[in-house]
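Regression check, flavin-adenine dinucleotide case 425:
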Amino acid sequence: MSDNRREILIAGGGAAGMMAALAAAGHGAAVTLIEKNEKLGKKLFITGKGRCNVTNAADMDEVFQNVVSNPRFLYSAFSCFDNQALMALLERLGVRLKVERGNRVFPVSDHSSDIIRALERELRRLGVKILLQREVNALVTETLPEDSGRRVTGVRLRDGQVLRGDGVILACGGLSYPSTGSTGDGYRLAAETGHQIRDCVPALVPLEVQETEAASLQGLTLKNVSISLLSGKKCLYQGFGEMLFTHFGVSGPLILSASSYASRMLPQERLKLIIDLKPALTEEQLHKRILREFSQARNRQLKNVISSLYPGKLLPVILSRSGVSPEKQVNEVTKEERSRLVEVTKRFSFTITGTRGYQEAIITQGGVSVRQVDPATMESKLVKSLYFAGEMLDLDALTGGYNLQIAWSTAYLAGSSAASERRKV
Ligand SMILES: Cc1cc2nc3c(=O)[nH]c(=O)nc-3n(C[C@H](O)[C@H](O)[C@H](O)COP(=O)(O)OP(=O)(O)OC[C@H]3O[C@@H](n4cnc5c(N)ncnc54)[C@H](O)[C@@H]3O)c2cc1C
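Current build output:
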């Protein structure tokens, strides 16, 4: 090109790749966005069950609290481009937004495709060159003089073509939902240029349990329960909300959050999941509640009297675990048996044996070690002019729009840094 603009190449046309391209082009660079799928934003399309929870509108302190891995690395990225900046940008691009329960932000239309379309329109307006069905297969680097390390000078595509540039941004995503294109290429490209990859595991993912009872509870949703996930005596996660049983174990919002603190230990370790089925009642209050039920029906069978306390599917499991005959008349239930009922209700436990796979994981935990990336620019500390953005970095958060905000913020910073870097001669 004859003009004096920096040429920036971006691998990956997901949330991070598109945002990096917008930022780089917005800062005056000539940008080429390379995506191996036939269209941009394939994963973005399925986010938030097709509604795309684009970010979370909470104040940034709360946003940080929801980041699980390496929150401190994100200070610069979040202060450069935070949730408010993202919302302002989307509104400017014509996407009207709404804030729902838990500060989750969605497009008013409830269509993720509106987000993708708006970003794509802006990419074209800014003159970003979009190459679809082209795959970055290797990075091209050169050794700098006087032992000052290496610099990236371009990328080699799978078809052998080499594209040259002043900077390269890798935004290839992780390993979760591989059908969307996130198949770990970014980790390979980073590792081939000497970067450490922190072990990857599926996270925000359902968990498998040892007890076969879980299968008999399949389909049962528990609302307003609290759970604790323990490794020996150490509590890894505690939360209140909703979960459900499946044919292999447990899932639902509470379990997905818990998995982010457990994945790394599984399957080497067995973890204990303890469900408090009546978190609003102390043990003593639950005793009293059961006695009240008993006093109103002294000659009736236990299973009929306490049925109001548990969902139908759960009752037989509770009674079997408590070792109290369901047919027993309530006036014959001993104090000890009542205590066992209370114990099982307050500590309904399962042994967690593993996580489900990447096909069911919302994110990948692990990735390019943030120690080798400058948090102020997202540039590699090992290879000059090489930048990282999005899920391929060792960053992840809980559900609620935080993971996309990580992608938007790191990508905006990477794109604007790459475009603004002084041109080397
Ligand atoms: C089912 C589901 C629902 C989710 N819902 C939400 C939600 O509502 N809110 C939220 O905050 N987060 C959500 N997430 C997480 C969020 O989608 C990701 O954190 C985010 O999309 C990561 O963006 P990314 O651009 O880094 O990676 P990706 O979106 O994975 O994009 C990477 C892109 O790189 C391309 N690519 C890979 N290798 C190459 C290569 N060699 N050459 C060229 N291109 C390549 C891929 O094809 C892909 O398009 C959800 C995830 C899933 C799976």
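Comparison notes: The mean pLDDT is 95. The radius of gyration is 26 Å. No diff flagged against the previous build.
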